[in-house]
Inverse folding.
């Protein structure tokens, strides 16, 4: 079941924070870095974020979170994380599908590390196409993908 999450609620924000930490620790290992910017995001930053959070629950546990911003009909996926206990269960695909069905948008974009092959494969499976590569100041090479909504 997917629901909007009230990230301003400390208990909910703690659940989001836990999923982020668990997932991003695995991603940092996957891409081979010890300093990974998403791991430095604080509970307070989550609580005060203006983005929208949606969570997928399995057995009343928060298993995955998608964080979204809508800007001029552009859907921006700011984060998509799944707790490692729920990997390989289709939760990320469910969250992407939910966002695509729920929001009225003309284009969706997402960014990830170039070395994060599982994420790139997931996004391409949903029709995303790479349009940009760059290396930010933190040194982790990134790429951006997008998809046009043809509906």
């Amino acid at each position: 079941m997917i629901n909007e999450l009230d990230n301003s609620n400390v208990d909910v924000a703690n659940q989001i924070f836990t999923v982020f930490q668990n997932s991003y620790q695995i991603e940092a290992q996957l891409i081979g870095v010890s300093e990974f910017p998403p791991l430095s995001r604080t509970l307070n930053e989550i609580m005060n974020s203006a983005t929208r959070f949606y969570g997928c629950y399995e057995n009343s546990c928060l298993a995955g979170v998608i964080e979204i911003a809508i800007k001029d009909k552009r859907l921006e996926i700011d984060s998509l994380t799944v707790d490692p206990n729920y990997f390989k269960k289709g939760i990320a695909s469910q969250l992407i599908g939910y966002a695509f069905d729920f929001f009225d948008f003309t284009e969706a974009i997402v960014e990830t590390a170039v070395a994060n092959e599982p994420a790139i494969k997931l996004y391409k499976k949903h029709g995303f196409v790479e349009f940009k590569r760059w290396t930010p100041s933190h040194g982790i090479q990134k790429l951006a993908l997008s998809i046009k909504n043809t509906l």
About this structure: The first strand starts at residue 2 and ends at 5.
